[in-house]
């Protein structure tokens, strides 16, 4: 636990020692603003809720989370610090979790900084704040899923650009798997149980459920499983090929 | 104590280290000497738990590096090749991170970190990001992180690589100071370094152990061991006179320097000085050679390459 927190603290401090943190936070806030007000028609809709705000989170995360996660392990490989890290007395699991939590907490900070949006909607009308809390939670859980994928992809290579592209592609598949354009490919021939399986993998569907304000245990378990699976794969990849 | 048992590492079809066994006792400063790509770094990476051996294992004070890697790592301080560090952190942040990872208690953390900062003269740069430092300072930061927990076993992969001569001297002094009751393994391809630092040398090439001896013992293997060299006027004439002496087996003249090889085990130097006095030769340099490590190294690693 102590070792994990030590890794997490180092990583988190690392974000703020470089421009990474500030660039990410600013772009995240600007983009959420643009999406909410221009594409989401926040004012014109005439509803006091944050649906236009949360609706675009999956698409923002698709690019912004891999931008955070791409350096997690690729950078350690490139600079050789991976050798330093894994000759310290800590386990691969502690290192992976430490880095993951650092990045996840950082994205949590970005979400907290969008609070003025919440204040605004409360000023303009009387939204259901329970739904908004649930949606924030859902958004953060979904970010965790994206992060776990990105962290795993980053462990595969020493090149951050490759890590970024791999992450975006895998995240994209997870996002799309529930959409009609993907489902149509399978509809004609796949059995129903497989269709349900593919559809239930979708981040979008589970996020949509939570952001309606319904916190269903199945959705929570889904995100926990996806995150756990990719972090587990991450540990395996590191244990199998640390050196190159 | 370090005990390597038949350490072997393959990368695909390439054999990096083959069946390497040795033990190292406290007080020993062991130098891994070998050409680039000989398997020195790979061996160190297996000892420190970074790489898992393809077969074989090593015991660090009785703890198996394969079965209980984390416990074994606690006992070791390690400077990886190139002294990697987290560039964006300041020296102090970096050393604090390593000290915490080394499980040093929070109450003695500051003292431990301060000690190594003093030892390696890092006080003037503690608040600078590591990436802004010169090569010499970076290497010292790497050494500092390796000894922050005062390990009993220290493994240093090319500790003086890329340093200027003064910095090399400093680092060697530091290693010598620590050597008394520790086990230290350094790897290098700099011959003068092993001569200056180590009391034991292992020559490794193509992943195999070719020689394991004291610097003295290795040097004695040189064909120049106990030869007498001199620089003298009219060297050719002198050579023909001296080679008549019973104590001289052969004389070689190379670039103005005359080297005389002994016939027996004793008396060559005395015989040569006597002959010089007798004949009133104008000698500008005269010495008894112990041997040349570079020549031993060359012949041992070459023999391997041609075999």
What does this protein structure show overall?
The complex is a heterodimer of chains A (244) and B (307). Chain A is built from 14 helices and no strands. Chain A is globular. Chain A is mainly alpha-helical and 244 residues long. Chain A has one domain. Helices cover 37% and strands 28% of the residues of chain B. Chain B has eleven helices and 14 strands. In chain B, the strands form three sheets. In chain B, strands 6-7-8-3-9-10 form a six-stranded mixed sheet, sandwiched between helices. In chain B, strands 2-1-4-5 form a four-stranded antiparallel sheet. Chain B has a four-stranded antiparallel sheet with strand order 12-13-11-14, covered by helices on one side. The radius of gyration of chain B is 24 Å and the shape is elongated. Chain B is an alpha/beta fold and 307 residues long. In chain B, strand 9 and strand 10 form a beta hairpin. The relative contact order of chain B is 0.13.
Which SSEs are present, and which pair or pack?
The complex is a heterodimer of chains A (244) and B (307).
Chain A: H1 2-17, H2 20-39, H3 51-54, H4 57-69, H5 71-79, H6 81-85, H7 92-112, H8 115-124, H9 129-154, H10 160-176, H11 180-187, H12 192-200, H13 203-211, H14 217-240
Helix pairs in contact in A: 1-7, 2-4, 4-9, 4-10, 7-9, 7-14, 9-10, 9-13, 9-14
Chain B: E1 2-11, E2 14-24, E3 29-33, H1 40-47, E4 55-60, E5 63-64, H2 69-74, E6 76-79, H3 91-101, H4 106-119, H5 135-147, E7 153-157, H6 165-178, E8 183-188, H7 191-197, E9 200-205, E10 208-213, H8 215-220, E11 228-232, H9 235-242, E12 248-254, E13 257-262, H10 268-279, E14 283-288, H11 293-306
Parallel strand pairs in B: 3-8, 3-9, 6-7, 7-8
Antiparallel strand pairs in B: 1-2, 1-4, 4-5, 9-10, 11-13, 11-14, 12-13
């Amino acid at each position: 636990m102590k070792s994990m927190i030590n890794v997490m603290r180092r990583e988190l401090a690392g974000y703020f020692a470089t421009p990474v943190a500030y660039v990410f936070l600013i772009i995240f806030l600007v983009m959420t603003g643009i999406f909410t007000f221009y594409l989401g028609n926040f004012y014109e809709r005439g509803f006091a809720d944050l649906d236009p705000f949360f609706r675009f989170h999956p698409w923002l995360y698709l690019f912004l989370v891999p931008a955070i996660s791409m350096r997690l392990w690729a950078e350690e490989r490139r600079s050789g610090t991976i050798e330093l890290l894994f000759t310290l007395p800590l386990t691969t699991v502690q290192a992976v979790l430490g880095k993951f939590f650092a990045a996840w907490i950082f994205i949590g900070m970005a979400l907290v900084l969008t609070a003025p949006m919440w204040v605004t909607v409360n000023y303009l009308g009387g939204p259901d704040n329970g739904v908004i809390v649930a949606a924030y939670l859902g958004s953060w859980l979904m970010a965790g899923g994206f992060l776990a994928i990105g962290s795993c992809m980053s462990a595969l290579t020493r090149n951050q650009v490759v890590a970024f592209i791999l992450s975006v592609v895998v995240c994209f598949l997870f996002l799309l798997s529930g959409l009609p354009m993907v489902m149509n490919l399978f509809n004609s021939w796949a059995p129903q149980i497989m269709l349900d399986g593919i559809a239930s993998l979708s981040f979008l569907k589970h996020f949509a459920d939570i952001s309606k304000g319904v916190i269903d245990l199945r959705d929570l378990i889904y995100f926990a499983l996806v995150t756990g699976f990719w972090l587990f794969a991450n540990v395996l990849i590191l244990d199998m090929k640390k050196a190159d | 104590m370090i005990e390597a048992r038949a350490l072997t590492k393959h990368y695909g079809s390439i054999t990096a280290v083959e069946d390497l066994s040795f033990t190292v006792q406290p007080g020993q400063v062991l130098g891994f000497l070998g050409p680039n790509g000989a398997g020195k770094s790979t061996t160190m990476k297996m000892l420190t738990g970074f790489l898992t051996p393809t077969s074989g294992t090593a015991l660090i004070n009785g703890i198996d590096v394969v079965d209980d890697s984390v416990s074994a790592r606690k006992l070791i301080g390690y400077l990886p090749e190139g002294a990697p560090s987290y560039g964006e952190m300041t020296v102090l942040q970096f050393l604090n991170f390593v000290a915490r990872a080394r499980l040093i208690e929070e109450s003695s953390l500051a003292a431990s970190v301060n000690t190594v900062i003093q030892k390696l003269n890092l006080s003037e740069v503690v608040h600078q990001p590591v990436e802004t430092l010169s090569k010499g300072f970076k290497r010292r930061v790497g050494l500092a992180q390796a000894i922050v927990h005062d390990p009993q076993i220290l493994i240093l992969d090319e500790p003086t690589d890329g340093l200027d001569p003064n910095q090399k001297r400093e680092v060697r002094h530091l290693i010598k100071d620590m050597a008394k009751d520790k086990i230290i393994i350094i790897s290098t391809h700099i011959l003068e370094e092993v001569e200056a630092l180590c009391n034991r040398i292992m020559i490794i090439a193509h992943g195999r152990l070719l020689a394991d001896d004291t610097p003295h013992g290795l040097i004695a293997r040189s064909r120049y061991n106990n030869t007498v060299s001199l620089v003298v006027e009219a060297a050719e004439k002198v050579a023909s006179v001296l080679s008549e002496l019973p104590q001289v087996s052969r004389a070689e003249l190379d670039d103005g320097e005359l080297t005389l090889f002994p016939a027996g085990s004793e008396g060559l130097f005395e015989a040569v000085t006597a002959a010089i006095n007798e004949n009133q030769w104008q000698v500008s340099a005269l010495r008894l050679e112990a041997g040349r490590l570079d020549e031993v190294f060359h012949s041992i690693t070459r023999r391997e390459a041609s075999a």
